[in-house]
Amino acid sequence: MQERKVGIVAITVLNRENYARVNEILHQFADVILGRMGLPVKERQISIISVLVDGTTDEIGALTGKLGQIEGVKVKATLLKV
User: Fold this and answer.
1) Mind telling me which InterPro entries this protein's record contains (predicted)?
2) SS3 content of the chain, % helix, strand, coil (to 5)
3) Strands (E), 24-81
4) Where are the domains of the chain?
5) Strand boundaries in 14-45, DSSP class E
6) What are 4-20's pLDDT values in tens digits?
7) Which helix or strand (DSSP H or E) is residue 8 part of?
8) Within its chain, how far is the Cα of 35 from the centroid?
9) In angstroms, rounded to a whole number, what is the distance separating the alpha carbons of residues 13 and 59?
10) Distance (Å, rounded) from C-alpha 31 to C-alpha 77?
11) Which CATH architecture has domain 13-81?
């Protein structure tokens, strides 16, 4: 059994046209998401989403990998062993 980790995934959406796809993927991974907060930065035409996650490295990696494949989306994760 894989060890579970807790962390934060930071998502920057540079193109609001892709926001629906980002939400769709987050919905697919709802079982590892503890909470999320999204803020639009209107002056810069971007949105920043922080997602608190609790899952295995494989689960979180699958989430960040799918998000990172979307054009105009940047993803960074910070994870802790608990």
Assistant:
1) Acetolactate_synth/TF_NikR_C, ACT-like_dom_sf, FeFe-hyd_TM1266
2) 40, 50, 15
3) 33-41, 46-56, 73-81
4) 13-81
5) 33-41
6) 999 999 999 998 888 99
7) strand 4-13
8) 11
9) 21
10) 17
11) 2-Layer Sandwich (3.30)
